[in-house]
Amino acid sequence: LFRSRPTPKPWPPFAQLSASMAPKTEPSPYTRARRAYSSLQKERLAADHKAYFPAVLEGCPQVVKKQAIPSDAKDAETVKGLFPSTYDVPLVEFVAGVAGDTKARAPVKVGVVLSGGQAPGGHNVIAGIFDGIKQWNLNSTMFGFLDGPHGIFTGNFCEITVDIMDGFRNTGGFDMLGSGRHKIESKEQFDDSMAVCNAIGLDGLVVIGGDDSNTNGALLAEYFKANGCNTKVIGAPKTIDGDLKCPPHIPISFGFDTACKTYATLVSNVAIDALSAQKYYHIVRLMGRSASNIALEVALLTRPNACLIGEEVARDKRSMRDLTVELADMIEQRSKLGKDYGVIILPEGLIEFIPEFNQLMSELNDKLATPGVEATEASILANLSAENAACFKFLPDFIRAQLLLDRDPHGNVQVAKIETEKLLAATIAEELKQRRAAGSYKGSFKTQFHAYGYEGRAGMPTVFDSSYCYALGATASALLCNGCTGLIASVMNLLAPAREWQCGGVPVTSLCVIERRHGKEKPVIKKALVELEGPLSQPYAAYVKIRGDLRLMDAYTVTGPIQYDMDTCKASMDIPITLQLELGVRPQLLGNVPQPKRMGEFLYIPQSKKSRSQLQQWRMEREHRVPDSLADRSIAAVQVKVVSDTMCQEQDMSYVKKFFSTMGAPLLELWPQEGRGCTVPEKQRIGVVFCGRQAPGCHDFLCGMVDMFKSSPDCKVLGVVGGTHGLFNKQVVELTPEICEAYAGTGGLELLGRTVDRLKSEEELDKALKACEELQLTGLVLVGGARTNSDAAYIAEHFSKLKCKTSVVGVPCGIEGNMVNEFVEASIGFDSAAKAVAQLVGNTAIDGSSARKYYYFLRVMDGASTGGRTSTSHLALEVALQTKPNMLLLTEEVDEKRMSLRELVKEVADMVAQRSEIGSNFGTILVAEGLLSAIPEFRNLISELEAIPMPKPVDKVLAELTMWSRALFQSLPDFIQWQLLLERQSNAALQMSQLETERLLAALVEDELKQRKKAGSFKGSFSPVCQFIGYQARCSMPSDFDMDFAYTLGATATVLASTGKNGYMAVVSDLSQPVSKWRAGGVPFTAMLSVPASNAIGSFRPRPCIFPHRVDLDGRAFKVWCEERALCAASEMYQNPGPIQLSGPSASTVSKTITSKFSYLQELEQLRKHLDDVAARCRPGCDPRTVRVAKQSLATLNSIMDELSGPSDVVEQREGFSGRARASTSAD
Fold first, then answer.
1. What pTM, to 2 d.p., does this model score?
2. CA gyration radius for the chain?
């Protein structure tokens, strides 16, 4: 149960149902209209489709008939025998006709069905058909069959009106009608399909699907024609796999471009993540079972270190051993260059191309289709050949289990559920272990695994897919209106503008070959695999030409998020790179990559602007927006004003004073310099260290720092390479405008990197002080989360006591968004990461409402890395507000309610059961990363495990646990036990990101629902799919907000550091206002320190710290979710914010949790104004009654405030808890 992803339940046997149930012939009411749209969705709905309409289809295009050439001559006669009525239909091309009188043309009735897996752009195919038949005659009618082909033979359909159609234009997914993988196979199903089409009076039916769906459509066309049915059948080529094409007539299938660009964005992000940390190999498995087209397209777009092409593996008969040695060689060579990191791509169908596994899987498919052979290891081993049985036994147990999962609708192994990347990593690790023993390898091989699939199937279509799909739909309608049948729509000349595209239709029978399915020979459209040689081998040849260099170079290309601004962003108009190459465009050569410079543990590899992608270079031209106080972007044009003295929380005041000699330092605000300007201290040397984890916008922060010194040539910004370790080792580079220019608007920390986020012990403080003195730093800027800024407070105090002249300034940064408080409204990277994650959640939720059979459990990387009791869920909450999932499992709420694991499982199961009662056996559930730490029994277990040094064998760990924690640990599935014992964070806290909480919950919910089904209280189906979203987003290109916010913080930190403001955090407030109205300034660390209450017994108290801020369950953001969640649970309120937009109206949107925050500083100003008003009205000579009322009111207010803060003597005696627990709650 826990070793593999659960499989979807089989669809009902409709062939059996139809025997006792006549199909419906009346339309059903339409109930699937979307209820909410994001800003970008509204933009795309309003896009003008006329620009997508090929000129040749205007008016009444003329049909030119040509002879079709069979795909495979050897199968031609067999195919002809199967399609006697439609085999000879001609290939069709359209030429411009005359406008004509639409009233003279009879209106048509056309049906449309979505078949197979989702692909972006399907709704635009429908839109093209809809507009096309309306152009033919305004009174034409369209009907949509619901949930795939079975909607045809059961008569489950609705009429598509203008209002319905206008709600889905340019949107992703198939949720308008729903899709299904059923086929029309039995004679009864063909008869019922014909009866439904005749009853409606359909003139035509469009099957939107892949190779199998279009083959099924061709069979339907044959049956209809042979039996005198007037309904013509036309296909539209759909599949994200890119394996349905027949150049030149079908150059590409729709959806491929959007899916590949979505995956390329994610691969780009993890590549930058690899460069930033320089400690992981990211192994990425991409969708594409039978062909490696997606993997090749993404490899050409992103340039990973290795990409395995399945077709090449099959051609060369490369074994698993061969692949292992090849990749191990690359890893060893990279390690010798100091590169123990990289990116490897492989297609999900790779295992089928490896000879020994191909033979095994082929026999498995046949044996499991044989009556009496069960899907158990014992049964399979008894029936396999000796050679395949040996191969099967060689595999790890989790791979064997995955090979025995339910077959797909074609009777084949579900390769999407085989974790080939983990199998490959295991064999590589074993090979490297042997090489280490032999002395040839001395590196480190740590892996992160990614499987990208569902998030690419229902995304908002690219400009290319939007226009291509619309043209395909318009072509299909023109074919039907001209009486054509048995064709698949064709659109060509794709390098030209859409208006110049050429349109027509290709006989499906000319594309068919004979293939073995379910143990029988059947006609299928020949799959278009990656062509290794021949007329369409240009993409493969282009990759082969560069892959030798890519193995050792870090030439990663960042494609960035998909853009829709066709007016200013040229990259938005790109068509697939493999298609460009096939159509004759010359491949781009690798640019010059600078030689890396080793600096301690880190490789410094500065990039040039020319080495960046087209989108990045365009993005770099954007000018950062700043508040009015920083408009001149010069240190000499800014003055620092004192606002008022500060304090920490009253109950902590006396204790905090024991650690910090200066309390009550003033709040500072930056203002434009008045008069002639200020005198800037000469020869400022400001060092900057990235301590926290990767976040979008960090490079823009550097741009802000450097730009403030442009008018002060004797002042320098020194970037510390390699994080805190780099500071200790004095690894610095001077950051110049030229260097920063190539990093503006880029994600991650690839320029300077980071190591361990720790500057805490006396030894570490002394190392930092020594480094600052030797580097002659006048300022030190530390960028990170709560732990970083807590450490910065103590460094500042340490430096002050020892008379060090270096001013220490902290900066809030982190995608988790928990480095916020009354002074800090946001942290760098939160907005961008939230938007990047929300796109993936939105895509996946729409995919779920399209297929209508999966429950997606999506775990979101969040503030769990703070460990212990301070896990936070800001990112998960923001994503929920942007996407409206069916359920959000929030760490803080579970903690507040003290829910047990059993109660949590019951709550999820109740929601699933309630949805099943209305026929909705699908949904999306967001899981905060640190959820388990909020469950009381798990919290205790985690606390005990964190006190045990790792690594340690399980038996020794069990011996050190209490009885209750030991029992809980032993009751957990093996995969969770193993993950609980993995490597710790730098602060010894357990890495919550390594716990597959979503997988645990999904399995427990499934078990609960099985029990309910046995008891008769649950009659639905439950098929969970689990995914973790984190690394894909944290190195995203920054949003407009993060670019401007980070840049402003960089400028602010530079001002504070260069004016000697030691012990301050740079802050920017009033973020809900336009950028020009933002307020930049500084807050003393001491005003943000606190000492949390504790139940521990003893006299020890933890040191004061700046603690991660948890989601405020009384705050506006959470209340908004509470107002919506009941409706979200019961229905589909999904919104898809789409990819981050870098221009256009949607680029200005800001995360809801940021804009909903109240301004603490504004509240203080209003309070002071009220106090001033009281003082003004109570001057000598005022009415005595006024004085009396004011005095009594203020006295009452002070009494209330005393009650809130508590007596000081109680505060002094409050007991703390162990230092070990405190350490686990003070991490980033």
1. 0.91
2. 32
